[in-house]
Design a protein that fits this description.
single chain, alpha/beta, Rossmann fold, Tyrosyl-Transfer RNA Synthetase, 3 domains, seven-stranded mixed beta sheet, four-stranded antiparallel beta sheet, 18 helices, 46% helix, 11% strand, globular, binds tryptophan, binds iron/sulfur cluster
Length: 449
């Protein structure tokens, strides 16, 4: 296993007010230029690692997943048949729409590729941030999210849980809260003296969601990938920092040797760690009071793994900073962002299929004012909500998309044609999905729900 990169994820600019790209998990975001995210927040380009994946998901192939943090760790585990997890969560505060389907598909793809999968229904977040009653959280969690997740193919070997029902996650949240400070939460999220404590707790709950697949009872430290929209990156950065803060040791590759430093480990524990390394085949090491220098040929990754194992035996966590995947958002059907609070902008997975088809027929496209103008200038498929429906959800064929794109650009395709195709397909998709949801209802017990 590779060592997760140790640099801190929150660049100095993130805490200042000079940020130009704001990622606000609770507010409206408009992210005009995703490449800014690479520079400002240190998200890596997904395209650079895409060639390593033999059968990438369509979102990967189509560059809809555009960025990641530390996904290499997950890929390595996947290839070597080592344990890894996928984890994400849904706030049950509105209807599940096509945006939620994207995250669900990414979770399921990783489950199919060997991940132990975890899904949180974030009822504590919905309750504290959006004021949703517990009854409604329960109902919406199951009726909207869980049924669709199962209908899309989530297998019962994975874990679906409500935050408020998991004492494991709540206990971990309390531990993490001991290492999180008000000043950083206010720098990341803009929390002020008026922010409710419950809102802060829900942020720490999310970090606990993300880290709990690595607890001893879930098989211990391992790479975990969190597929999310790019607006959730603030949570990921905070959680990666907390993961590092909870470590007892810091392992650093210094080229000639590997340094194992006690962060929250006194001289006795460092002594014991040195013994443990010796017993496990690292014979060339120098002991100091606060650190150990290991000169063995063993790679830094192997030493990191040994140290993690020792740390867990000593009651520590040994967390690997969680990896993440970021996807682009779809353009809303009414133009602008697709938002769960604006029904005309999205298509819910529980929506009447005919109504959905009607919405598509009325959608704002990248077309011109008149047919004549469209023939002359061509349309603009980039940012066209109907083209994106095809690209994100309704077409399996690259050639078909290519053709639509080109015909649109050169003015030989009219929006009516696209709309008719997309409307028919969304109707068929929803009919089938809703049949799947009915079948899923009968299977809830298999999932412990
Ligand atoms: N905060 C997320 C949202 O607003 C939901 C969520 C809760 C989550 N726990 C999570 C997302 C863990 C990813 C990982 O939808
Ligand atoms: Fe969009 Fe199709 Fe119209 Fe082009 S022709 S703008 S892809 S709906």
């Amino acid at each position: 296993m590779r060592i997760a990169d140790e640099k801190v994820d929150i660049p100095p600019s993130a805490s200042a007010t000079v940020m130009t790209t704001k990622l606000d998990p609770w507010g409206a975001v408009s992210i005009e230029d995703y490449s800014k995210l690479f520079e400002e927040f240190g998200i890596s380009s997904f395209d650079a690692i895409l060639p390593q994946i033999d059968d990438p998901h369509t979102y990967m192939k189509r560059h809809i997943i555009f960025g990641h943090r530390d996904y290499q760790l997950v890929l390595d585990a996947m290839k070597e048949g080592k344990p890894f997890s996928v984890m994400s969560g849904f706030m049950p505060s509105g209807r599940v729409h096509l945006g939620g389907k994207m995250v669900m598909e990414e979770i399921i793809w990783h489950q199919e590729h060997g991940a132990d999968a975890f899904v949180a229904i974030a009822d504590m977040e919905a309750h504290s941030v959006r004021g949703v009653s517990w009854d409604k959280c329960r109902k919406m969690g199951i009726e909207e999210y869980v049924l669709s997740l199962i209908a899309l193919g989530f297998e019962p070997a994975g874990h679906i849980y409500f935050q408020s029902h998991s004492s494991t996650v709540r206990d971990l949240a309390f531990e993490l809260a001991g290492s999180a400070h008000f000043s950083e939460l206010s720098a990341i999220y803009g929390f002020s003296g008026e922010t409710s404590v419950a809102h802060m707790v829900s942020v720490i709950m999310q970090s606990a969601d993300i880290l709990h697949p690595q607890l001893k009872e879930n098989g211990g430290p391992k790479p975990v990938v969190i597929p999310v929209g790019s607006d959730q990156d603030a949570h990921i950065r905070l959680t990666r920092d907390l993961a590092r803060r909870m470590r007892k040791f810091l392992v650093e590759d210094r080229n000639e040797y590997v340094s194992v430093r006690g962060k929250a480990a006194g001289p006795d524990m460092i002594e014991a760690a040195a013994d443990y390394l010796l017993e496990n085949g690292c014979h060339r090491l120098k002991r100091y009071e606060e650190h150990i220098d290991v000169y063995d040929a063993a790679g830094a990754q192997d030493i990191e793994e040994l140290v993690r194992r020792f740390e867990v035996e000593e009651g520590g966590y040994g967390f690997v900073p969680p990896a993440s995947l970021y996807h682009r958002f779809m353009t809303g059907l009414a133009g602008g962002k697709m938002s769960s609070s604006r029904p005309e902008s999205h298509i819910a997975l529980t929506e009447d299929p005919k109504e959905a088809a009607r919405k598509v027929m009325k959608a704002v496209t990248g077309g011109r004012q008149s047919l004549a103008e469209q023939k002359k200038l061509g349309g603009e498929p980039d940012g066209c909500s109907v083209y994106e429906l095809m690209l994100f959800h309704l077409s399996d064929e690259e050639e078909e998309l290519q053709e639509i794109y080109e015909e649109c650009r050169n003015g030989t395709r009219m929006c009516g044609t696209c709309k008719k195709v997309a409307a028919e397909r969304i109707k068929r998709f929803l009919e089938e999905h809703q049949r799947g949801r009915k079948a899923a209802r009968e299977r809830l017990r298999e999932y412990g729900l």
